[in-house]
């Protein structure tokens, strides 16, 4: 049967004009907008949720990693400023040592920054407002405006209906490369999406009334035994009893569900994934209360507003970062940010995780943010041009923030310049602000508070 088609003739009002529009106000988009605005560009940030912060807030993934490779700090600049602000507002105790995936077969020691997502929402507001960014929440970017192969703005749907806004540069920070995809940018590995083989999602949840100290006192081998018991009983879904606690140590923000086999850019799959996540949370909470020290009186205080999505689309840019680049310490003359790892690949359909910390920070070239075939558009964050393996090491939030700051500078300089902006120009502005753009910049070592 021929598929039905509804042809609409839309007349969309063009309501404003900006130098830079950033689609998505997550880890990377927030930084891109603040960065572009500080570089002098009239900047608008459009975010579909009711807050900025992205996966860290809306999906409650309550710890930033990627600030440190082993003990070496690799991300500074505006990301570091945001972290300090969160501490100042009482939303975190700062950087600490942490054993990632403690109940798995190969846990790894890291330096992380655990936080209360509610405080991070407030810190994001303060940072963006102080930088003079125009912010529109509850605003979904639904399409790019285009003139031939150039993106010239975006179409938005919000409480007021549908409108268009033009811009000299658009930054796609949606995590899903939604603007780039609609603008015709080539995508990497499309079969991963169509075969629903992306890394599993996790729906985060928050338990209050938890005795965090009692849980921390359980020896690691017992935690692993508990996780394996839960898996055998089909009440725990991967080798994880991982959670972050907020200041006060009364709450556990749990990274314990594992939802595999869905393409979250498909609306029905996304719906099914959210509901499967909630079903899993029901059984996990029951298991924790009955079996795990510290949880006997736990109360389900919240479930994230959006399931955490690890993998969807990635663009093909002017350069594609590979796992060999990361592990082989490849240097790039146009490096604009440093990644820390770990290379972090969750097993699709299984219960395991592959984790590896590169023994050095790695450089990420500016070309990974620039689509090869479309102008007027940059892509930052989770969807940059990287292989699946490299993306496993470059998608952490601190790395996404560093990339965002670089994208903001590149966008702002591009608006103000008649020629194609060079990486040296971008690097010079970033360094002037205290951002780390190449290996030589990463000299600061971790000092416990
Ligand atoms: C379950 C899980 C656990 C993780 N664990 C960690 C961890 O412990 N530490 C860590 O550092 N990283 C972790 N990550 C990785 C990390 O959270 C993401 O890779 C990172 O947030 C990517 O940053 P981003 O800015 O590209 O995307 P996001 O932070 O996801 O931000 C994208 C933003 O764009 C908005 N958006 C999307 N589409 C539109 C649209 N059309 N219009 C307007 N707005 C839009 C979204 O609402 C969102 O706010 C985890 C990820 C998941 C899913």
Count of β-strands:
20
Distance between the termini: 66 Å
Number of domain modules: 2
CATH architecture descriptor of the largest domain: 3-Layer(bba) Sandwich
* SS content category: alpha+beta
Radius of gyration: 21 Å
- Principal-axis shape equals globular
Question: Main beta sheet: strand number and arrangement?
Answer: 7 strands, mixed
According to CATH, the homologous superfamily of the largest domain is: FAD/NAD(P)-binding domain
Specify the oligomeric state.
Answer: single chain
Helix content: 25-40%
CATH fold label of the largest domain: FAD/NAD(P)-binding domain
CATH class categorisation of the largest domain:
Alpha Beta
Heteromolecules bound: flavin-adenine dinucleotide
Any chance you could write out the topology, listing elements then pairs?
Layout: E1 14-23, H1 27-38, E2 43-46, E3 63-64, E4 68-69, E5 72-73, H2 77-88, E6 95-100, E7 108-114, H3 117-130, E8 134-136, E9 140-147, E10 150-158, E11 161-172, H4 178-182, H5 190-194, E12 205-208, H6 212-216, H7 220-232, E13 243-245, E14 252-254, H8 267-291, E15 299-303, H9 323-327, E16 335-339, E17 343-346, E18 353-356, E19 362-365, E20 377-379, H10 388-394, H11 397-416, H12 423-432
Parallel strand pairs: 1-2, 1-11, 2-8, 11-20
Antiparallel strand pairs: 3-7, 4-5, 6-7, 9-10, 10-11, 12-14, 12-15, 13-14, 16-19, 17-18
Residues 23-29, 46-49, 54-55, 58, 61, 63-66, 140-141, 173-176, 178, 202, 255, 308-310, 381-382, 395-398, 400 line the site of flavin-adenine dinucleotide (FAD).
